[in-house]
Design a protein that fits this description.
Largest sheet: none
Structural class: mainly alpha
Low-confidence stretches: none
Number of helices: 11
Order of helices and strands: HHHHHHHHHHH
Distance between the termini: 24 Å
Strand content: under 5%
Shape: globular
Helix content: 55-70%
Number of domains: 1
Number of strands: 0
């Protein structure tokens, strides 16, 4: 899953847990033993969510819907597209808090802890502010910018810069896959949080 989904799923665990989850794509190896226990749990939570997502039958089927060479990058593309769908259907999953308020609160948490973030996450935080993310994941033009930026960061040439038209072409099927998958993920995340924080 991408950044917004991870933030939403980790949020009920509290600030340290949410911070640990936010570090998931920017921290490698075991959690730092000097971190608070909740932050360590949040990092493990992020990785467990990614494993559940990658193995879910609906996500597997969604990846298979893309022809080569895009299929090789379908996991990355779907992570971002699923955040796009989450923005557009936010009230279904988080009706208790408007997306703009949630995004401000999540970004404020990261802003307040910049001294504790790795350089890569600090740079991405600056990029999110500059492009109105995560709210702007709902905007097709911003998604196109995101995919072009991602293609530049990859270590080898890839077709990721042209991902948006392919995703739009499969939009109906991808919506169906997301609608079947994401409720399962929400339930799994709730049970996982409870186990990790007790």
């Amino acid at each position: 899953m991408n950044h917004l989904a991870h933030a939403l799923l980790a949020d009920p665990g509290g600030n340290e847990f949410a911070l640990g989850s936010a570090l998931g794509d920017f921290s490698h190896g075991h959690p730092d033993p000097a971190w608070p226990a909740a932050r360590q749990a949040g990092l493990r939570f992020h990785r467990a969510i990614d494993r559940f997502t990658d193995a879910h039958p609906e996500v597997v089927a969604a990846r298979r819907g893309f022809a080569p060479p895009l299929r090789r990058y379908a996991g990355i593309m779907l992570d971002i597209w699923f955040d796009h769908l989450l923005v557009r259907d936010w009230n279904r999953y988080a009706a208790h808090e408007p997306l703009a308020d949630f995004a401000r609160r999540w970004l404020a948490l990261l802003d307040a802890r910049t001294g504790e973030l790795p350089e890569s996450l600090r740079a991405f935080l600056t990029w999110m502010h500059a492009h109105g993310l995560p709210v702007a994941y709902g905007d097709d033009a911003t998604l196109d910018v995101v995919f072009h930026a991602l293609a530049r960061r990859l270590s080898r040439p890839s077709p990721v810069a042209e991902a948006l038209p392919a995703l739009q072409e499969h939009a109906g099927a991808l919506q169906d896959h997301f609608d079947a998958f994401f409720p399962d993920l929400v339930i799994h995340a709730r049970e996982l949080r409870e186990r990790m924080l007790t």
